[in-house]
Design a protein that fits this description.
The structure holds 2 protein chains of 2 kinds.
Chain A: H1 10-22, H2 32-49, H3 66-71, H4 75-80, H5 82-100, H6 111-117, E1 122-125, E2 128-129, E3 137-138, H7 149-154, H8 156-168, H9 199-231, E4 240-241, H10 245-253, H11 255-265, H12 267-290, E5 296-301, H13 311-331, E6 335-340, H14 348-351, E7 360-363, H15 368-375, E8 380-385, H16 387-392, H17 395-408, E9 415-419, H18 428-441
Parallel strand pairs in A: 1-2, 4-5, 5-6, 6-7, 7-8, 8-9
Antiparallel strand pairs in A: 1-3
Chain B: H1 12-24, H2 34-51, H3 68-72, H4 77-82, H5 84-102, H6 113-119, E1 124-127, E2 130-131, E3 139-140, H7 151-156, H8 158-170, H9 200-232, E4 242-243, H10 247-254, H11 257-267, H12 269-294, E5 298-303, H13 313-333, E6 337-342, E7 361-365, H14 370-377, E8 382-385, H15 389-394, H16 397-411, E9 417-418, H17 431-444
Parallel strand pairs in B: 1-2, 4-5, 5-6, 6-7, 7-8, 8-9
Antiparallel strand pairs in B: 1-3
Helix pairs in contact in B: 5-9, 6-9, 10-11, 10-12, 11-12, 12-13, 16-17
Classes of the chains: A alpha/beta, B alpha/beta.
Chain lengths: ~450, ~450
């Protein structure tokens, strides 16, 4: 990054990132065609991100487990045998990428890492779920108790290491035996080191070391894979990631039930917690976003959707810190990419209030026609051919749906054609129809 | 100590008495004889009476022999720091020879130099490392281990500050922790969060912790065996319990350093106060949990920078005392008996610090005027100390005995006095002078026949 980076305006930072994305320095393209394809596709994305008209509507497609099923392996195999997961994605990409303009990346949950940690936040195929099940299931619980907000506020790292990690990872239970880290700074601190001889503590350390090794091995695969695809002319749409403060609190700490009760029983504490988590989550978004080529920062949204809370609660608990997170990322020249899961139609007026032309909203079941009306010109809209239609409809149905989207949502650019969720059960002919039609009809 | 529903309703004094009881009546101890059991209870009772500001049968004596057992038998502190068996043998021999005369069973307090070596500890110089091999004690090496602009980081997330900033500075072996990301930035799916643990230097640092733990345990086995033996032979341990510090000293000793914290009182007083408040809460939690886990009754505070001459009374009242009092109050509420070891002198502070219920805190004085101390604090606090180390090193047994007689006359009235040196360790003291102290208590300290 340039030396005087800190003095740059958000606009300059964003320009610099987009330029990097368009003209990546460290890629060796496989051919001249790959180079020009990359350029065309990247430019198309940059245009829609900026809520402008590109040459035509770009298409994105979360292919999910399709490459593995195609290759004849199940999700469990993909989670544990990375060579096979990579081979499956390669094969899929060779077969479909050119046509689909999309490449699959083996971004699969790392089974061995979960095993090594004795991870309790998920069940997965062969671990709490049948061998052939094709999902990873999040297991919600009160991993932070109602009376532990103060521990989190007063000494966050202590809370994470000595309370949270031992709860969510069976192999890290020994960390609960650690003494407060303050003891290692005090008089006669050497006494405190005795605890590191405890077999359970040693076991936890070993689990961390082994899991770390495995995680890095997998990340290397993924990095190399992405690079090779870029060099074949497919710009990465991956970026950094972070979480809305309320979701961070609700998903992995208090759980839905816990947090819903907290909104009534200790509303001020919930607001304080969201504000407390905000800088941590901004830092995560900034750091991971900076490290990516696109400067996108993915924020999947869970507990603020319609039906999870009232509009009043959304305004009070969910939106203020999420908005601040968005604004902070924009200030860093990054591009927040929010996935509004479920239906968020009733929130549209509220979530319009963000810096113009700087963010991407992806919708699942929200009424995108209405979304376009409200957000026109302000936000790049990403969505959403229903997966149910792709699984059960005919190619004609799919084309009709795409036409409506292009006519109404894509009429002035700022639109990415996508399915509403992972494509695991889609009919191939429907996916083809979606692509063929968009490539043809979506030209500006 | 197990928390029961009724313990919530006990007064601090009742809780304190429960803790004293478990010291007076230790569980799972097989005394070597009924005489040993009786001696244990008599000696322990003598201390508890004095602590509670009552008259015991006679003035109790608390002595420390430091590294005398090593030098007496021709060894030195370097040798016993590194050779645990030798340490255990020499202390056992010393106790055979002298425990009954001293009424004290010596437990080694030499530092675990191998642990320091493994961790590359920068906070101390010790025999063989920065000090000659025959040097008796350790020397603290002060520095600005925490920088002036790091208060916010400490206040916001203390353990993050300690793990990623402070420990890497004071333990060379933990230096790689400085490159970790904060663990609070965890993501639901474990993966890249763990990446730093893949790095060989971070792995070595974790291994160093394990190695240090193993080494400390080897030594602890020897020390614990001696401690168990002491009780079985009838000698209560008077040096057990938790060590605690005044928040001002925590920051001033091993973090900001004297110079740094003195400047902070002028340059950033609000930050300093805020940080001390954070540290006070952590100190409370730490002392209470460690004493509850070990069923201990006592927390000892060596007090450093609040002594006369280090700061004005105004500064003492603003910076030193409030956060220290917060910690003391919290421990007293838990029934923990507090020993405040006022190094240097506390003459100008005596009136200010007299604000605890009777028998809750005690004062171990170094060079404070003992007559005034008794006058101001004697109604409510057990007081201890004041036999000068210089006298123990250079005086004759007769000088020592005479000094002790004077102290008992001044401080012993009504009980609530423990005869004791005014400094922590007496490495160069003459053994016969220590014996003279014990003699003085026996001869002049009797409250009843």
């Amino acid at each position: 990054m340039p030396g005087d980076w800190a003095q740059w305006t958000p606009e300059q930072k964003r320009e610099w990132r987009l330029n990097n994305f368009l003209n990546p320095a460290n890629l060796q393209f496989v051919s001249e065609k790959a180079k020009s394809d990359y350029r065309v596709r990247a430019q198309r994305l940059v245009d829609v991100y900026n809520v402008k008209e590109p040459d035509r509507v770009p298409i994105n497609l979360p292919v999910g487990n399709l490459p593995y099923m195609n290759y004849g392996i199940n999700l469990r195999t993909a989670m544990y045998d990375h060579e096979k997961a990579v081979a499956a994605c390669k094969k899929f990409n060779e077969e479909y990428s050119e046509e689909l303009e999309y490449w699959a990346n083996p971004m699969v949950t790392p089974g061995r890492v979960l095993d090594l940690l004795g991870y309790k936040l998920y069940s997965w195929p062969g671990h709490g779920l049948g061998e052939n099940v094709s999902i990873v299931q999040f297991l919600e619980a009160e991993y932070m108790k109602a009376d532990e907000y103060e521990c989190l506020f007063s000494d966050p790292m202590d809370f994470v290491v000595r309370r949270y990690w031992p709860r969510i990872s069976g192999e890290l239970e020994g960390l609960a035996r650690l003494l407060p880290f303050a003891d290692f700074t005090s008089y006669m601190s050497h006494r405190s080191f005795g605890i590191f001889d405890h077999p359970e503590v040693i076991r936890a350390f070993e689990a961390i070391l082994k899991a770390g090794k495995e995680a890095v091995r997998m990340a290397d695969y993924s990095r190399r894979f992405i690079k090779s695809l870029e060099e074949e002319g497919f710009p990465s749409q991956g970026g950094g990631g972070t979480t809305a403060p309320f979701d961070f609190l609700g998903d992995t700490l208090r759980g839905t039930k816990g947090l819903m009760l907290d909104m009534y029983r200790r509303p001020e504490t919930v607001i304080k917690a969201c504000e407390f988590l905000l800088p941590i989550l901004v830092a995560r978004g900034v750091n991971s976003g900076k490290a990516s080529r696109t400067g996108l920062v993915f924020i999947p949204l869970h507990k603020g959707l319609d039906g999870f809370m009232s509009g009043e609660q959304f305004d009070r608990f969910y939106w203020p810190t999420l908005r601040e997170l968005i604004v902070s990322l924009v200030r860093e020249g990054l591009r927040p990419y929010l996935f509004w899961e479920g239906n968020c139609t009733s929130r549209l007026e509220k979530i319009k209030d963000i810096p113009e032309g700087k963010a991407v909203y992806r919708f699942e079941a929200t009424d995108v026609m209405r979304a376009k009306e409200v957000l026109r010109g302000r936000v790049c809209i990403w969505g959403s051919v229903p997966v149910s239609l792709l699984a059960t409809g005919t190619p004609e149905d799919v084309k009709a749906c795409c036409k409506k989207l292009i006519d109404h949502v894509g009429d002035d650019g700022g639109f990415i054609m996508d399915a509403s969720a992972h494509l695991t059960d889609a009919k191939p002919e429907n996916v083809r129809a979606m692509f063929d039609f968009t490539k043809d009809y979506g030209v500006y | 100590m197990e928390e029961t529903d009724t313990s919530e309703e006990l007064t601090p004094e009742e809780k304190r008495n429960k803790r004293f009881e478990s010291w007076l009546e230790p569980l799972n101890v097989r005394f070597v004889s009924s005489e040993a059991e009786e001696a244990y209870k008599q000696r322990a009772r003598r201390f508890v009476d004095a602590y509670c500001v009552r008259e015991p049968d006679r003035v109790p004596v608390m002595v420390s022999v430091a590294t005398i057992p090593a030098y007496l038998y021709g060894s030195n502190s370097h040798a016993v720091m590194y050779d645990y068996q030798k340490m255990a043998d020499l202390w056992a021999r010393f106790n055979d020879d002298h425990a009954s005369v001293l009424e004290t069973f010596a437990i080694p307090t030499v530092v675990p130099a191998r642990v320091y070596d493994l961790l590359d500890l920068k906070l101390y110089a010790y025999a063989g490392r920065g000090l000659p091999t025959n040097a008796p004690a350790v020397q603290f090496v002060e520095d600005e281990y925490m920088k002036a602009d790091e208060y916010d980081a400490l206040i916001r997330d203390p353990s993050d500050f300690w793990i990623r900033v402070y420990l890497p500075r004071v333990y060379g072996a933990l230096e790689p922790f400085s490159s970790l990301a904060p663990f609070t930035d965890f993501v639901e799916m474990p993966g890249q969060t763990l990446a730093p643990f893949m790095r060989p230097d971070v792995q070595n640092a974790l291994q160093a912790l394990i190695d240090a733990g193993r080494e400390l345990s080897k030594r602890a086995v020897k020390v614990q065996a001696l401690a168990r033996q002491a009780i079985e032979l009838g000698y209560p341990l008077t040096t057990t319990g938790a060590f605690c510090k005044a928040p001002f000293d925590t920051l001033g000793d091993t973090m900001r350093g004297t110079r740094g914290i003195m400047m902070d009182m002028y340059r950033q007083p609000d930050k300093l106060l805020e940080a001390m408040d954070v540290i006070a809460d952590i100190s409370i939690q730490s002392a209470v949990s460690s004493l509850n886990a070990t069923k201990g009754f006592k927390a000892t505070f060596p007090l450093h920078k609040g002594a006369d001459g280090w700061m004005s009374n105004d500064q003492f009242n603003t910076f030193y005392w409030p956060s220290l009092k917060k910690v003391i109050d919290a421990l007293v509420k838990e029934g923990i008996f507090v020993v405040l070891f006022a190094e240097g002198s506390f003459n100008a502070r005596l009136e200010r610090v007299n604000e605890f219920e009777k028998g809750a805190v005690s004062w171990l004085f170094d060079r404070t005027d003992m007559a005034r101390a008794k006058q101001v604090l004697g109604e409510t606090c057990c007081i201890m100390g004041n036999v000068p180390a210089s006298l123990m090193v250079t005086g004759s047994p007769a000088n020592v005995k005479e000094y002790c007689r004077g102290l008992i006359a001044t401080c012993g009235g009504g009980g609530g006095y423990v005869l004791s040196p005014g400094s922590a360790a007496l490495d160069d003291a003459k053994l016969e002078n220590i014996k003279a102290m014990v003699d003085a208590a026996r001869e002049y300290g009797r409250y009843r026949e």
